[in-house]
Amino acid sequence: PRTARLLRALARAGRVRRLVYASTTGVYGDCGGARFDETRPVRPATDRARRRVDAEARVRWFGRASGAVVSVLRIPGIYALDRDGGDPRERVRRGVPVLVDADDVYTNHIHADDLARACVAALCRGAPQRVYHVSDDSQRRMGEHFDAVADLAGLPRPPRITRDEARARLSPMQLSFLGESRRLVNVRLKRELRVRLRYPTVDDALRPRASA
Q1: Residue 165 Cα distances to 127, 142, 150, 176, angstroms
Q2: pTM of the full predicted structure?
Q3: Taking the domains of the chain in order of start, what are their residue ranges?
Q4: CB 3.0-4.6 Å disulfide test: which of 32, 34, 103, 121 passes with 193?
């Protein structure tokens, strides 16, 4: 409803030439670890993801009706070492468990700085009504991801639990991220928006940068 009201207000203003909408990769639902690009059909499995699918359709309709160039950015987990609630080391320090190998899922990430640069690039170079994966180059399962975070930060690796144990110990929100597995192709981000990732993987963000 908020997106619908926003678009009505923008239509009345009549001056919008470009619009970038930040969506979520959750619109795809569980993909069983498949690797895919933006042409994959959406299959949202949560109310949150279904609202995003509806909002995507509304903003793209707005673009077609008004002539505005609309870019839809499908964004996975956002992190940054100085972002409140976005430092992956904090999760490791809290000892939040991850799934055992047999139950683990692929996860995707983007550094907040690279996301900001992608938003600017979409405003400048986005194609009309085009969808873009704003994801880094990582192709890791969630357990591997947080093991790497722990190793690079000099912290103990997170404990591993089964999916049945996770259902008993974790919140519904935490469980939602453990129930979907996918690997995103980010070719459009690089070729069409011409974004060169500053942090291709979380390792690049956590390793000390050489001083000039």
Answers
A1: 45, 16, 22, 14
A2: 0.92
A3: 17-205
A4: 121
Residues 11 and 14: their CA atoms lie apart, in Å, by 5
End-to-end CA distance of the chain: 49
E-strand stretches of 76-185: 77-79, 98-99, 106-107, 109-111, 130-133, 140-141, 160-161, 183-184
The predicted-structure confidence for 67-91, as pLDDT tens digits, reads as follows 999 999 999 999 999 888 889 999 9
* Structure tokens belonging to residue 73: 């950015």
Each residue's pLDDT tens digit, 160-187: 999 999 988 888 877 877 889 999 999 9
Nearest to 56 by CA among 106, 16, 44: 44
* Parallel, antiparallel or unpaired: strands 140-141 and 106-107: antiparallel
DSSP one-letter string for 19-70: EEEEEEGGGG---TT-EE-TTSPP---SHHHHHHHHHHHHHHHHHHHH--EE
